[in-house]
Design goal:
This protein has 361 residues and is α/β, with parallel strands linked by helices. The chain folds into two domains: 33-201 and 279-353, Rossmann fold (3-Layer(aba) Sandwich); 212-271, no CATH class. The protein is 40% helix and 16% strand. The protein is built from 13 helices and twelve strands. It has helices spanning 2-15, 17-30, 87-90, 100-110, 141-156, 173-184, 212-219, 223-228, 231-243, 265-273, 284-289, 302-317, 335-350; strands spanning 34-41, 55-62, 76-80, 117-121, 134-135, 139-140, 166-171, 191-195, 258-259, 262-263, 292-298, 323-327. The strands form three sheets. An eight-stranded mixed beta sheet has the order 1-2-4-3-7-8-11-12, sandwiched between helices. Strands 5-6 form a two-stranded antiparallel sheet. A two-stranded antiparallel sheet has the order 9-10. It starts with a helix and ends in an 11-residue tail after the last helix.
């Protein structure tokens, strides 16, 4: 009798609406997307003077419903990583300070109607970062991302292959790249978001006396010395590879801003020409074509915070609507939170999700 009564209550419990609701809720919470790490060949990256491979790793996050809903197509957000980073770090293949897939899973578990594909190319180069710029030394990264990578993703995954369904974003060097590429290709990307974007304007420093990092860079003669150098010195080499390439100057095929202990004003002018805030006026027509642009930075990220305040002022001057925020934080400590609470929602609000879009609002 006791055994029969026990079995009765077990059956009642397992079939009760409350129990089933809890089970379905748990399944929804643990629903996860998948990540594919593929290789994409870039013709625009061929024959770069640094000798970097034109076969680039690319990490692709596919949302939880992608596998089980073969009729559904998705918007795509291209996320560009920062200097010294790579795609593997952001997608959990290598240890890092932040991993994207769990963040995306968490957001889409609450808002499954706005799932999207997220794509990150590996822009780690000989000098540990491409600056997402076109250069004979590192290859044409702007064109590779906007033309070849987008075309590859659209042809190999179920995307909504249209401008209004493509977003572009990035952190630090990636934020710089997102603005650089986004304003050049507004017919490819419609929504742009910058997380703590570096290098938007010329650094607030005097070259008298010449900074030690510039002098250290000037003294380096081998790649091994570059790789052993401090972060700032290595960043000078990456910047030179992107913005002052020189095919006639082996072994690095670059021109540094200091040569034999003397400042090279012409090289600094080339670098200044690659700072987006220095030539923003020439891209206003393209920026107006973007559906939405947003950017943020932490209070302790002083130089970057000041640069995006200037970007805010410039866009206001032209009457271009945008999202802008300075928050309490540094260069990395709250970036994961910003992606989860601000950036993904920004894309959800502004990208086109196809036929279902009207019913979601």
């Amino acid at each position: 009798m006791k055994k029969a009564l026990y079995q009765f209550w077990i059956v009642m419990l397992l079939t009760s609406p409350v129990f089933l609701t809890d089970i379905f809720a748990q399944r929804k919470q643990v629903a996860t997307g998948t990540v594919q790490r593929i290789k994409v060949h870039g013709k625009f990256l061929e024959q770069n003077l640094s000798g970097d491979s034109a076969e680039r790793y690319v990490s692709v996050y596919l949302p939880a419903s992608y596998k089980n809903n073969p009729a559904k197509r998705y918007p795509v957000v291209y996320f560009l990583h920062g200097y010294t980073d790579n795609d593997a770090k952001f997608y959990g293949f290598e240890k890092h300070w932040m991993t994207l897939p769990p963040i995306l899973d968490s957001v889409f578990a609450k808002d499954a109607m706005h799932e999207m594909i997220v794509v990150t190319p590996n822009a780690y180069t000989t000098f540990q970062g491409s600056m997402y710029s076109n250069s004979a030394t590192t290859g044409n990264w702007e064109d590779f991302i906007a033309e070849e990578l987008v075309a590859y993703i659209d042809s190999h995954f179920r995307t909504l292959a249209k401008t209004e369904s493509r977003g572009l974003c990035g952190h630090s060097m990636g934020g710089y790249g997102a603005l650089r590429i986004g304003r050049k290709y507004p017919d490819v990307f419609s929504v742009v978001y910058l997380l703590s974007p570096c290098c938007l304007n010329s650094p607030p420093m005097s070259l008298q006396p010449i900074p030690q990092s510039f002098l250290r860079a000037d003294s380096i003669k081998t790649l091994d010395e570059v790789l052993k150098a401090d972060f700032g010195t290595k960043a000078l080499f990456a910047s030179a590879a992107a913005w002052s390439p020189n095919p006639a100057n082996p072994p690095f095929f670059i021109d540094l801003p200091v040569k034999e202990g003397k400042v090279q004003p012409g090289i600094l002018q080339k670098w200044d020409a690659n700072r987006p805030l220095n030539n923003l006026d020439q891209y206003i027509f393209n920026i107006r074509k973007l559906k939405a642009i947003g950017f943020d930075a932490g209070t302790k990220d002083a130089w970057i915070a000041e640069s995006i305040k200037t970007l805010d002022n410039e866009l206001n001057k032209y009457g271009i609507k945008h999202f802008f925020e300075i928050y309490e934080g540094d260069h990395i400590n709250r970036v994961a939170e910003r992606i989860q609470n601000k950036m993904v929602k920004f894309f959800s609000d502004n990208l086109s999700f196809g036929k279902r879009e009207k019913t979601n609002k």
